[in-house]
């Protein structure tokens, strides 16, 4: 036989992987909302070159975007643990969310910055001209228009995040991919395991993508 | 009240405003005329600091800003005293016609939603666009967008309105209506500075006219005198085409 | 997979005895398969296979990859076997032809240096035990801990596990007793091995479940038997580990 | 202190990691340019809903964006190898470039699509109105304007790509990160190793980011 | 030659063009007038299929397109016979003034670079913007942008020019110059369809005038008759404001 692919084993993987779905989604959602928030702050500071914070935020983005995530995670979870009792007693769950948020917000801030940049200057001026404060203009005029441009990039990041939770396994956090790796290293049936995982991820993320498409459609309608 | 002293502005090497000074009493209408690219729009934009002048002192109502030492607070204050109609409208693209007009009422003047709504609908009616209240800017014709722009600036109800080419996309009927609208505002003591290239409109609405060229005031005066008996040769030449065309 | 593969395999057969044996390994497994400063592979597995190659009169070629890539190299037919302290289990036997056991690895409990309360599996009940995803410990713990009283914490690879033990995030982990002292020495981590070995892992070389796989497995088995009898295995083990695990 | 940080070891890591720099950069550049090209094609098909190709390209993007990369790589390099002799005899280098390109072009196409979407419809119409064919409008008018919006997202992706080459170790391709994990697997001095790697990556990618900033500055100047 | 039969267009429920038919001989100038939001821009946009009409047959030069069975090729052909000046200019934002005008010369007409350059500079001179050749659209005043838009359309040198509000941002001097420019084009047998709300400009330039309202032609005729003795009450009413304003 040229191909060894054991269908029953492949099928048996689905329920096992799905059992860990909550672990994946919990971390991903927490990290997504945290990083979205901080990304927004970073993007605004950088796009509008807000004095005093611009340099700091640039260094932050540079560091977290330009160094490997695994290094960030280890440095935080093992390196800082040596000086901080809080971190030493931190659960892998919390540590993972913190590390992922800190990392992804740097990437996401770049997507948001580009989207802010895509809104014509005239919209900002019009907002100021009716007496809105810059932050209000941002909130009421610029961000709603930037959203439709930012969404594909942010959605890219959310999808990556959902998959990145797998890295948590390095510090002992088990997500969907972790169970694949555990199960398959016992049986050495990696193809079956990974293929099952792929189908599951595809199914789950397709749902999210569908939501993305719907939001984009609604936002684009009026332009 | 508007008072401007020695206003200067340049883009890179290009000196666009070359020391503009004028004074305007409350409730009066000042009209800026002059060739294309002369700095009319830039002047209006400098007056509320959408463009930072390099020199000059601007007083609007109770706020005075010196370009050499402008503070953020002063600038906001200045802006809250003015509203602007843009040459290319700049309607909020994410908002319907109605929402564009509601925006200053709700977010700046903080009116109650029901009251704001009634006011916005009244303004929409005044500019003849009640039917289009739920259309987005991309779904409006040029003239419709221009009128929403005027409506939005009216909603701000400022001390001074800065109006850039308010009739450029309007047919004669609507020019008449806008004229009427601005008269009514002036009667309510709104001061106005209007840049326009429609001489007839300028003549009818102005209390005072500035003829600008190359970022300088070439001649100024009341419309009667300026349009019928200009003192400067250049003014006569510019207005000649106007009469010729007619 | 029709005629083309059949003709390929028939021509393979003709000179099968001359073809090199290709073996996958990680090159990052202390004493078994390491990469030295010059980038060359060395270790117990390397020595054993060099000898097997000599005796079978076949050239040995190595392919390195991470885990589980080394296993997949075998599945996809790119290599003939895997040499990296692969444990034999019933489940894996379904998929591969294994050679006879050539190595027993005893696993011991490892705890923080300051911990004096853990000496055996029973002491682990209610404690956190870190295990790797590719540990074969699981098959033993069904017996050792039938009531699931130990709290298992799984890791993808071993990078952070000893550190977590030292820091007290884990109460213990299991480590091949061959490695405990080196890890301790090189990393400077404050850990120690305690008690008797919990279980031993039987290592063998897996071959694809094909005719060729079986053939080669049988040949290798023959050589392994010779090597054991002649004391080569013992000598090599002493060279790398300082003792003979087959005893 | 539970974990010690050995400075000499830390320093000794730098030359070792740097030695593998060419391997990292070779794969990253090849994969980046290939995926950029295909991303462009995908983005255009999807933004302008080109008949016949739209559905296919949507499925492609969905699959590659929504399934774990490690699964894609394994399925391609190990799964397909069981039926294809070409793949069986493919070098890890080539396979890695193919797999990375196939994956990243899906993500990058979303960034490009958003950027295309940010260009006003009027620009497209103006192009058509002077008699340009749609593709010429795209090339000469839309893409140059979309570029400044696409760049932060694309640069995010390039940076991720540069780090993703590490996954190549799964199929036997050694890059800068591979050497870190090899070195530290025996010594367990992973903090030293990863910190060294972080600094190196930071340095290298900072250079690239600097280029990004310069390009963005030039492109934004005229808006 | 332009021939339009029963052209219809609606946006959702809103019927914007309600069956427009007209015929225009080569080298003639047709002017569209009518209230804001009446469908003038939409008509122009339909003529080169930037907006897809729902019904009607359009013939421009040697191309005929039936809206019910329009083929891609026909549409390109149609577009290659026309050029358009947009109400809101739509200059290529990534190109300088000069490059905007060069674009059709180089990419569509495939002139040699040196020849194209000379031609583009000549056009820039004609619209009075030689000085601004290296400015980007964001650095131009409203009137300057409008003239570049006209220059770009002229560079295409098409059979038919579709021109939407060409003078909306121009002062009287420049209106005269644009008038002059378009006359010259007409003398070279360029057919033109111009939507405008400047009645004086319409009266001077038109060979034929359509007065539209609510997507229909209310009245048409030569400018002399239409402006001085309109037949319909609605036309009279619309033009009355014009005379009143004057
Ligand atoms: N951002 C800018 N950068 C460089 N030059 C600019 C910029 N904005 C305007 N200009 C130039 O400044 C001059 C004045 O422009 P402005 O828009 O004030 O003219 P205007 O009098 O309003 O003309 P119009 O009647 O055509 O609207 C013009 O020559 C224009 O090219
Ligand atoms: N994309 C659209 N979606 C919905 N309605 C639209 C759209 N574009 C235009 N309209 C509507 O179609 C009508 C005709 O618009 P058009 O731009 O053709 O008017 P116009 O005669 O050119 O007016 P103006 O003189 O103000 O430029 C208007 O009522 C406008 O609101
Ligand atoms: Mg202007
Ligand atoms: Mg119009």
Automatic annotation (TrEMBL), chains A, D:
Transmembrane segments: 27-45, 52-78, 90-107, 149-173, 193-211
A molecular function GO annotation: L-cystine transmembrane transporter activity
UniProt entry keywords in alphabetical sequence: Amino-acid transport, Cell membrane, Membrane, Transmembrane, Transmembrane helix, Transport
Coiled coil: none
Localization per record: Cell membrane
Its membrane topology: Multi-pass membrane protein
GO cellular component: ATP-binding cassette (ABC) transporter complex
Domain called ABC transmembrane type-1: residue spans: 21-212
Entries under InterPro entries matching the protein: AA_ABC_transptr_permease_3TM (IPR010065), ArtM/GltK/GlnP/TcyL/YhdX-like (IPR043429), MetI-like (IPR000515), MetI-like_sf (IPR035906)
Similarity section: Belongs to the binding-protein-dependent transport system permease family.
Name by which UniProt lists this protein: Amino acid ABC transporter permease
From TrEMBL, chains B, E:
Primary location group: membrane
Entry GO terms, CC: plasma membrane
Membrane topology: Peripheral membrane protein
Key words, A-Z: ATP-binding, Cell membrane, Membrane, Nucleotide-binding, Transport
SMART domains associated with the record: AAA
InterPro entries referenced in this protein's UniProt entry, alphabetically: AAA+_ATPase, ABC_ATPase_HisP-typ, ABC_transporter-like_ATP-bd, ABC_transporter-like_CS, MetN_ABC_transporter-like, P-loop_NTPase
Keyword Phosphoprotein among record annotations: no
Coiled-coil residues: none
Annotated ABC transporter domain residues: 2-239
Compartments where located: Cell membrane
Domain of life: Bacteria
GO molecular function list: ABC-type amino acid transporter activity; ATP binding; ATP hydrolysis activity
One Pfam family this sequence matches: ABC_tran
Record-linked PROSITE patterns: ABC_TRANSPORTER_1, ABC_TRANSPORTER_2
Keyword Nucleotide-binding in record: yes
PANTHER family named in the record: AMINO ACID IMPORT ATP-BINDING PROTEIN (PTHR43166), L-CYSTINE IMPORT ATP-BINDING PROTEIN TCYN (PTHR43166:SF35)
Protein name: Amino acid ABC transporter ATP-binding protein
UniProt organism field: Suipraeoptans intestinalis
